[in-house]
Amino acid sequence: QTVLQGIILLPLRAICIIFILLLAWLSASIATFCQPGRGFLPLKGWRRRMIQTTLSSLTRTAYFVMGFQVKVKGKVASLPEAPIFVAAPHSSFFDAIICALTGMPSIVSRAENLSTPVFGTILRSLQPVAVSRQDPDSRKNTVAEITRRALSRGQWPQVI
Description:
lysophosphatidic acid acyltransferase activity; 4% strand; PCAT2 acyltransferase; transmembrane; two-stranded parallel sheet; membrane; lipid metabolism
């Protein structure tokens, strides 16, 4: 009985997750198509709302399809309360659920991740602070960019 359920559920879940991933890629592509400033200016208006609502919902749905149900206890800090949101140790695929629950903030990510097919487009739509491991000034530049975004008085989304 259990093996038969696994044989049926595993491919069904995989197909659903691939479909959700393609929808996320499509919505990220639409939101960033002909984007003014191309990563140097924050997304505004319908573009930002689309990223926040669509990607957040799709991410939560993907985790639900995988069998995870996340409940938030307490209140997530708003942008004016906390322009920088810290999540640790941020080393697994569970970090995406934190992003979904906090309204898809900007993240700090390796620059190489931006060139990954499908995931790179989704990641670029979050307007990440890209860290280059080859650049010796990268740490200083990253801190400066996070500070600039945190002091922007709400123009940029939260940084996680």
